[in-house]
Amino acid sequence: MAKTKVKKSKTNHKVNHIPRNDGIPFDADLFKGIHINKSAVERRASTLGKRRSVKKQWQAAWLLKAIGFIDLTTLAGDDTPSNVERLCAKAMNPVRPDLLQAMGMDHQNIQTGAVCVYHNMIPHAVKALEGSNLPIAAVSTGFPAGQIPLKEKLKQIELSVAAGAKEIDIVISRKLVHQSNWKALYDEVAACRKACGEAHMKTILATGEISTLTKVAKASWVSMMAGSDFIKTSTGKESVNATIPVSLVMTRAIRDYYELTGYKVGYKPAGGIRTAKDAITYLILIKEELGDEWLNPDLFRFGASSLLSDIERQLEHFVTGRYSASFRHPMA
Q1: Which pTM does this prediction carry?
Q2: What pairs with residue 116 in β-bridges?
Q3: Counting beta carbons within 10 angstroms of the beta carbon of residue 83, is it exposed (0 to 12), middle (13 to 18) or buried (19 or more)?
Q4: Among 107, 111, 100, 112, which Cα is nearest to 6's?
Q5: Centroid of chain to Cα 37
Q6: Catalytic residue set
Q7: What average pLDDT does the structure give for the chain?
Q8: Is the Cα dihedral 77, 81, 82, 86 positive or negative?
Q9: CB 4 within 8 A of CB 318
Q10: Domains (ranges, CATH) in the chain?
Q11: Quick one: which of 213, 217, 141, 210 has its CA closest to 176?
């Protein structure tokens, strides 16, 4: 197979570590004046996939880079140890070797950003990932609904960290957002951050269950003020998951928080991101709204299970000029 060169980019998981967000004291004055113009957000969001055209070797390079941002996820009720082991094997070797060789990328150590599982699957992931530098992310705090007492949420976090999770994806109590009880939300997220210890914490807002973009913005602010390392759109279990308008609101909250505090907070859209085209649209959003510094796994992730299959399929088209059948890429 002839070699088809792509534009070189850093796609492996080894990145410069970003100082953690230590949070700031609760101050409702910092966000009480926020009012989001939904129509304006939707107009801006509609332009993101249209104003830039990424083709040929540049598209392949962007897709290879996107792989390093994927939290490769299995959160199904029928998960088994063998499912998790296969997922971990794919996370360590996400693209077929022949395709990487054809693109001249076979020595770039391309891996996904992390593997995301339920708590009881952590030991199986630890064993499967032994010898790699891939972190394990565990969902916690009564995922996906979060409808358990705070004491139990904190215990879940502590158990997952003890089992080997390096990243914890928590879910907030949505009722606190609906009630605009921002101080209680701050206290809950801050307690979760403390329970995480050295493990990085991604705070899931479940934006599909938040009634307005204004409340999405305020919940983003409160979560960052309480020390979240990432803010995340969704559990993937809601009827509406990640969207570009919601992502625009959340990334601009991240930008404003950084300008105020100097802390860089990561962003993770999750749920419903299935195609290579979707991935590139989100990369464009991050590049335009937050800048190139956020285009690394310390500050940007996708929560996805099927996205990787489509990316690999598009890379095969780049190399061969032919689209493969989807069943040839069955396991993300």
Answers
A1: 0.93
A2: 73, 137
A3: middle
A4: 100
A5: 25
A6: 169, 232, 268
A7: 93
A8: positive
A9: yes
A10: 28-326 (3.20.20.70)
A11: 210
